[in-house]
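ok so heres the complex, two chains, lmk if somethin looks off
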Amino acid sequence: MNGSSIAQMNHNEKKAFLVKTSSLKDVRTFCREVFEKLEIDQNLKDELVLAIAEAAQNIVKHAYKDNPSSNDIMVVEVSCVNNKLKIAFYDRGTPVDPEKVKHRELDNIRPGGLGTFFIQEIMDAVEFKDGKKPWINHLVLTKQL
Amino acid sequence: MKFKVTENENISTVFLNGEIDMDIADNVREVIFPLIDSGKEVHLNMKDVQYMDSSGISVIVESNQRAKEKNTKVELKEVSQPVEKVLAMARKFL
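and the predicted structre for the whole thing:
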């Protein structure tokens, strides 16, 4: 997806959230506030918030599938350097196998995997990196603004 | 979260609002599914939905499939711009 932006400044901000479905709204609010500071236009901002929310939802839904009552936190870090936006997620859930994180085949009419499709449509790159202690999973989404 | 529901003959209209995400999706199912199961045609008015993600799309797809099984249907009415945008993206996938 394309979108214009006037983000000019370098910026870095991060926040911790409980790994709960009730935190997803707070994740969106945090990201909207950061994107306001970066003066990212509304259209792109909406897309980025959707991608970030889907990634955070995947942590709740998949990385903590077997531990829904956990009081663990996940951290979302938004940084922008030279107009390259980087959104990093850190969690201590079940290790993600990057090979298994893909959207399903197009001829299978079910909504599962749609969130991953949205993330891939909106962002330029989706990378799973080695989570350094205390983290287990470290997902990085990037987009050139 | 509560959603207004109006009845007109065999059509139930559910007025969704706010932000529909994974946290809210089950609430929406709890409103829509019993209407479908009772054989009603269900209209989803989405003009006041400011945000919807894949969880909301899941609810719509599941509702549609459930309605077909019950020989009725689900229609989207007055879709807001943010919802239309997500639906457009989802149509490339579904």
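quick notes: Chain B has a mean pLDDT of 95. thats all i got rn
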